[in-house]
Every structure is written in structure tokens, then in C-alpha cells.
Amino acid sequence: MNLISQKKRLKDRVCNSFARWINDVVIPFNVVNYDSFKVFCEALGHYGPGIKPPSFHEIRVPLLKKEVENTCSAIKDHGETWAKHGCSILSDGWKDKREMTLINFLVNCPKGSMFIESDDASSYAKISEKMFELLSKFVERIGVHQCGSSGHQ
């Protein structure tokens, strides 16, 4: 068997195993569009055969803690850009399967957009004063001097 057909067989085996797993645990298909998925596949390929998957505890405790630290670091890094170049607040509202109104808050800057938080606004989505209060608190949290045109001096 030549190297090309052997590589194709290995790739087919990997892709079929992945497809079986993704269907077994009901993960959305669009995960393959994430850059982090491509990074994961590359890292897995560099390790080679015989890697032991992380345990339930490893995923739940030390690896989750590390991801929280990475996220906090990314937010801090973005925050420095907000302070230097200004930023824009983005929000969108939507209803989930249970008809709860959820509002997402993101911050956009030259580094890109970053999701910051989500709020259950089911009880007050139609009350403009409450919505203004929610947005105002978020702007204060980010820093009013960094938002919109006031961030550019």
C-alpha cells in the first residue's frame, strides 16, 4: 500500500471516529468551523498515536480553571486596547427555546469583538427604563470614557 492511500485510510478512520463521537454526544456540527477546533486537531496530530484523553476531573477542574484564566487574560488584553483606542458596545436580544428573552453584551475594538456577558431580561425586555439601566450599568463597567467617540482623543 502506498503512502498516499495509507494516509487517506488513516484520515477516513479519524474522521469517521470523530463523526461517530460528535453524533453520539450530540455536539452541533458547526464546531468544525471554530479556529480552536483546527488548533486542537493540529495539536492532536503532533502528539501522535497513544494519547490518553483527559479525565472527567481534569476537564472539570484544572483544565477549566486554566481556560477561565485564559479568558480573563484575553479580556484584560482587550481592555487595554479599549483604553488605548476606544470601543463600541454591542448588544443583541433573542428568545431561547423556553421563550426567555436573553440579551448578549459584547465589546468591539480593533482586536475584534468579545462576548462579555448575557442577561435574562424576560421580566423587563419591554420596559425601556430597565433596558436603559441595564445598558448604562454595562457601559459603566467597561468605562464610559472608552465607549463610542468619547474613547478617541
Description of the molecule:
There is one protein chain. By secondary structure, the chain is α+β, with helices and mostly antiparallel strands. Among the domains are: 1-43; 85-148, no CATH class. It has helices at 3-24, 35-47, 56-60, 62-85, 128-142; strands at 88-95, 101-109, 112-120. Strands 1-2-3 form a 3-stranded antiparallel β-sheet. It is elongated. The N and C termini lie far apart (66 Å).
The coarse silhouette is elongated
Largest sheet: 3 strands, antiparallel
Weakly predicted, low-confidence segments? none
Q: Fraction of residues in helices?
A: 40-55%
Count of alpha/pi helices? 5
Strand order of the largest sheet: 1-2-3
Strand percentage lies at 15-25%
Give the radius of gyration. Answer: 22 Å
Write down the secondary-structure element order. Answer: HHHHEEEH
Query: Class by helix and strand content?
Result: alpha+beta
Output mean pLDDT: 92
| Amino-to-carboxy terminus distance | 66 Å
Number of strands: 3
